[in-house]
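Researcher: Good morning. I'm working through a list of sequences from a screen, and I'd like to move beyond sequence-only analysis. For each chain I'm collecting a predicted structure so we can compare shapes side by side. This is the next one on the list. No need for commentary yet; just the structure.
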Amino acid sequence: MKTVDEYDVREKRTRRQYVSSPFKDELSSDLGDLIVQPKRHWYPLLKTCIEIVVAIPMLIILSPVLVGAAILIRLTSKGPAFYSQRRLGRNGQEYVMVKLRTMVHDAESGTGAIWATTEDPRVTPLGKFLRRTQIDEFPQLLNVIFGQMSLIGPRPERPEIADRLELDIPNYKQRLHVKPGITGLAQLRLPADTDIQSVRQKLIPDLYYVRNMGPWLDLRIIFFTAIYFCTSIARVAWSVVSLPTVLDAKQSLVIESEDEETPAVS
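Model: Good morning. Structure tokens for this chain:
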């Protein structure tokens, strides 16, 4: 039977590729009969206590950002500023997760539960900004305070999607041995889920975290999450103030010319 320790060695050997590019085929293969449990049994309870103490002042400090974002959402699109979804917590217990709305209201009314795509037309213009900066995730601090989530852990998934994934990825629900998190190793290393293959790839860092969660690993994840957040804000700010490139100017001219040539419909 395989153990995660085998993957510890592999992760160290492939650290550079793991940071800069998607997993290779050998890393996205089936994990077989892998069984994963946290090896520091004392840590989850301590982690929960620390995170609740940290999440309360974080929510207070970020509350002006949340209020401002909620007002802008209400002003720029129809529907509520916040939305809630059922997600799976530790050991498969369901809870209600709260986020800022970044899509049109009732975005899944005609499709059911599906993943968002890279250029999802359901995402509002303001929603793109909130997603790029991760501000839409801030309300989940409430879930951390209520003990339903962690600051750090595997990404929470919806029950209906998780049931389907378990059929294709036998080890998938072993992620539920710990609380889901707002940020995490898999979230930092790989892009958002879009298909079965991307979920299969993310499962490896998720299970690695479940097995090796501890103070040092969490501190590193928090550090790189802070860097990612600051970098995202800087990129958005730069895109606002930067001058258009030659390609941008050409595309704009073409689009405007096409609009001018299109006859108005009476």
